[in-house]
User: Fold these one by one.
Assistant:
Number 1:
Amino acid sequence: MSHSGVASAAAPGRTPAAQAALRLIQSGQPIAAHFIGICGAGMSGIAKVFLQQGHTVTGSDLARSGAAAELEALGAVVHIGHAAKHLGRPHVVVFTGAIPSGNPEYLRAQQEGLPVLHRSQALALLLCNRTAVAVSGSHGKTTSTAMVAVALRHLGADPSFVNGGVVMDVGSSAASGSGRMFVIEADESDKSFLNYPVDVAFITNVDFDHPDFFSGRDAYEDAFVEFATAARDAVVICLDDPGGGGSAPVAASAAVCFAGQEHKVRLRVPGRHNAYNAVGALAVLTALGFPIAAALEALTAFSGTQRRFEFKGEARGVRVYSDYAHHPTEVRCTLQAARAVAGAGHVLAILEPHMHCRTRVFAEAFAESLGDSDYAFVKDIFASRGTPEEGVDSSTITSRSRFPDQVRACCGWHEAFEQGVPLLREGDVVVLMSAGPEPPAPALLSALKLSGSIETSEESGQTLHS
């Protein structure tokens, strides 16, 4: 199975096009790369490192963003809109699977015989002659990648890194460092994580996802086994995770398994899931040769990543957070963290489902996980890829909830705000969950400020499920 956009190559990094570009980079020669969809979270980070390493970068995207401004400041030429004339004659053309197969720049590159690389191929080029640490897993890989990168910086290693989210401590999702180590977030959604030359592999957990690509749970887990097998030096796997443990035997003596080990450290990010992420990061750091005591201290420096339970503000005693949760397990972990932060307060969740296929397959689990909130709204689906499915919408989830009065469907963020704000009391917590564009937290904060006096949760006298 594959996404509806341009599919990734079967063996990126080993095609003639990739090998030709690799030889240029290995010889110290700069190359010219054109990125189709350059402003995306993953693409912009790769393009940034290309620029910082002295290569020429052009690219295009549908809309201007902060990423475009940052890349232009580094010397990139960014076109708004896609057109064949933007292509030029680069050494390589880099694409992401999210672009449609009829993209005019992609078609022109193929017509002219230009080397066309999936973004994973392009990132693989940057890993040559580096100690590559690849972080993958169903959940937590963005945070764990950031943890490892920030800790290595504090340990003096000055690594390069490319992450799927902005690292708070650095203010960017990517950077080219002077050290030998290179930390990357390795995306499993289309098996492109198999394309990297990996020295140390870190698997946070394995929990079936991406039903639009994988035929089933076995195929999904097999991909992780292959990922673990390919690591040259070490594999870090959480044996407490039922899925991750299945990847351990293939790693044999190279595996660094963490299972219930006790290491005391005070993290700056909440949630039991982040404790697991930190233990895994610690195992990676020790596998790279750093002493445990120094590694533990370095992990305390990590302050989080954007849109991973990111605090967006407070109004009238109600705290608002943004999170990237788009899988039932992630929703549950996020709401558990929100519950810990809220204390005696209540938790209001607003979820934007991601893709029709995922919504249909995991509808029952989404409904169950939202039960960890006191009130929940499920808005219309954000379909970044895949084919819309008739009859699959927000009500596909809400109709399965055991709490129909508290878990409701709505048409958009603002409708959820209109219905949700009157329910909130001082001390409550709101979590906006989406893997699409940044949820409009400022609009919610403004609505709270204009809502008049807000009672405390104790004063409201409302009966809520838990």
Number 2:
Amino acid sequence: MAAGGGRLLSVDFEVFGRVQGVFFRKYTKQNAKKNGLVGWVMNTDKDTVLGQMQGPEDKIRIMKHWLSKTGSPHSTIDKCEFRNERTVFSQDYSKFSVKNEYY
């Protein structure tokens, strides 16, 4: 269990729309860090942004909303898909990072 936030979750995400070339990864990292989440984010060769986040359930919920509705200031989000949501007992990462290679 995560302190004060309910279950500890891991969730994969992919964001579709105008999300590359608009600092989406940078803002994702900032928001994840602000919410105490760990994981990673990267661009794909399909012009989407892909990532994984881990942390307390309540903070994951906040980040899901941000990824689906807010994004970076100049982004346009068409949709965000969340996959492989699962309870974890420890985090696989020590921080939230931006990966620079394409998937």
Number 3:
Amino acid sequence: MPPPKGNYGPPQDPQEMYPMKPMYNDNGPPPQTQQPYAIEQVVVQSVGPKPPNNLIISLVSMLCNPIFGAMAFLFSRMSDKAYKLGHTDLARRYGRFAMITAVIGICITAVIGIIAAIVNAAYLGGIGGYR
């Protein structure tokens, strides 16, 4: 489609079309309306010693009882992550959960082993063989 017919003059200078206005008048810059702000002081507390995460006992528990061992392992890793983020109390709590869960898993496995040994001795004639 061709452009419409008409009398088009030479292109105008952009500075003539949009003249620059001064940012402030002859009296200087405008008064400051923003209130002064206070500088906040940040105090960084040093993180204490790393609490035990009980990783070794959770791995041993994983060999004895995979369900409770896996839970103990997860609590142990969560303890490490909490310590890296600076939450020492939370890391200590997760480490304690890891130990408790691992001990419960080992105890459950020991009880099941004792019950299995008693059942084997009572019903199957003991270690010597079958009746």
Number 4:
Amino acid sequence: RCPRGISSNPPHAAVEMGECYDVAVLGAGIQGSSTAWYLAKHKAQKVVLLEQFKLSHTRGSSHGPSRIIRYMYPEAFYVAMMKEAYPLWDELAGDSGAQLMWKTGGLTAFQNDCPTLQRMKSSFDQHGLPYSLLSSDEINRQYQGLRYPPGWTAIYDPNSGILDADLCRQTMQGEFVKHGGVTRPNSRVKRIEPGREVRIILDDGQAIRCRRLVITAGAWSKDLLATLGVHLPLQVTRINVCYWRAPRPSVYSRHDNFPVYVHDTGKTHYYAMPIHEYPGLVKLSAHHGRQVSSIDDRDISCHSEGTPSKDAAEIATFIVKHMPCLERQPSVVETCVYTCTPDLHPVMDRHPIWDNVVYGCGFSGHGFKMAPIVGRMLSELVLGEPVSQDMSPFQAQRFSQAKL
């Protein structure tokens, strides 16, 4: 039987389009592009990658010039994933000849009694990764642009760095096409008809047929999955991404060893990067934002409680305390969205009825760096192969409302 909301007798006939693909991937953000690339290159699948907008759009979570890549996680399962993600990023760079990553080292600062600090050290120790600890005095001596009072400790990861987000996504898509993949931009999905052969009906009435389906629709996942009877507690959050002028740029330059940087109290979380995309400007933002009722309301909310000036005032207070060599007003404010789960871990799972339909969503603002291994995991999952990583932290059953 079909779950409520899915009709076994579609109301209007659709126009069948050509062959039946081995796999269709819905959503060409970084997770969908990675999955499509891995399926085409490593699994020799005939894959179509569908995107409702143009391939390089700014409506989701995968655009922009920079993302942090790091091993620094208190959860050992993420560290295990990153140990596989780094070589896959290197593989993509080697295949394409593109420079996707800049190693800068990474610093995460905690109050001395923060339990996350101990958990992060344990994760590094468990996986045999190098790190060092810096006291507040050592932070202040080593990094002119940071200020910390007594009672703080930072963990330094020499393998952290910056990914060029736009180039990473574009390169994934380009390599996917080289391996026989088909991209379909401007293809908005009207409905999905699951079955042994899945039919994806587009707004223009065309029907895409596939044997297996991967849904990586980002902020649109909640509504799309609900039409298939899967209800997930996903919350769209609009983030203001701020860039601040450094009167002395060398203080925050990666060429002068300023690292990617995270300030974590356990309750509040700020992140910064060395000067990279805009000359003389440091990317510094809060890792939280304003919840919106749906992705379609993200622009409306810009004119209400989530105004850039309110967020900028909060970050300016942080600057006074911890990054005093920056100006107090942002020079550039851009936006993106996070799609968050209650526990801030993503959901990667198989549909409870149709095992040829899988999905990955809810990456909660920290999934970009993991994209190549996520693509591998979703590929293995949709093909019915043993998954190379522990999937238990990501299963939908942890949320009771995810059941049909």
